[in-house]
Task: structure prediction
Amino acid sequence: MSVANLLDRTETLTARQKLVAIVGIANGTLEFFDQYVIAFVLLFILKPWHLTYGQTAVVLLSSGLGSMVGSFVWGWFADRFGRRPALLCILLALSGSSICLSLTPDGGWLYLAVFRAGIGFGVGGYSVVLAMVQEFMPAAKRGLVGGAISVSAAFGLLLASLITSLFAEALGWRGMFLIGAVPALFSLFVFRAIPESPRWAAAKGRMLVARRATAWTLGVEEASLPEMPDEGSVRRGGSWGELFRYRRSLVVGSLISFGIVTGYYGLFLWGPTLLVQVLGLTPKAASHLMLVAGVSGIVSRLLFSWLLERWGRRGAGFVATAAAALAMAIAGMAASSVWPLGFGISFLVACFFCDGCLAISGPYTTEIWPARLRAAGAGWTYGTAGLGKMIGPAGLALIVGSSDVLTPKATIDAALPAFLFLGGWLLLAGVTFFFARETRGLSLEEIEEALEREVKHAGVDSHISSLSRNG
Result:
């Protein structure tokens, strides 16, 4: 009996599988805390350091660029050397960068930007967390657990907000950065508590490791497991060139991730300004409404994590993206006609469904790759989606005629075209789901077999076409 048969034969989670899921959420929360804490640190240093807009933009955008690089590097590393060592290195990179940030000299914005890129580099390993968690799960719960991991982003932001409100004055901004070193301690727990992914070990032919990890996952004695056959030919994997053999996964995954991230970040960066302009709210009241959107986002992510296993990836993905795009169009029309109530409701609805989109895209774009390329493929889609974090605000800036590409100055006149711009990207992701492979209920091994058949069939067609051209 193979690793896949043993892990997929039940439809309920064992205590150890629940532990892996909790560790995944905790790990993601710590990662995103490190990512978001800079927004609160800037409140302390912006005026004393006399930072210009350009300097602030460099500090903030450096993390995004680091994240893009990290997603590619950590994906390759995890496929080559294992999920567990990759995760440990990611946590240490985050902690080391946080410690360095706490030592930033006063006024050293360039130093701050460099090590903020280090934080982003560590956060780029989020796709490795998803891959690792999914490989411990049975097919019946993989989507649910994978979607739940996305809640860690919201938890990270809430944690940063909570610690700032409770301890910022006592700790100062250097202390805030030092809290970001906690992942180093968490890595010790991970090292002792969580074994290597059984599926990765089996794919690498390390059957003793796979057998031990499977017994741990199921909570049984290793001796009680049946003999595990050789999983077949062992392929090293981790080569970027191999990703392009799986063209459907590459194109579908990239378009889904890019479209959703572009729409999401554009909405959440631009939204608070419009809340002030259209609804006439004070900045404080607008922040409270955004808090409501954040809390509802947690509910949305959990809901769509559940719907992944009820409606399937394609169905849940299309509903979330189409609903978000429609709500954005209504919000744009309400804003342009200065209808505050309609704008406020449709804006919150758009935020709700945008969060649901993120609960779908991460798990789906991770599971559509073979085991030897899973982390690298997920890293590719996560990295390319990082462009959306820049293109969303930059596109809005062009629409509203602003030179400020980070936080464009929203105007009511530009609301409709701007919201249609953001909704268009989400609609692109929704249409892409029609061309996506449905993976609900399939084991990761069954998905891989289908991928290999598709690649082989494409190779045969290409060979026949070449013979025809050559006469």
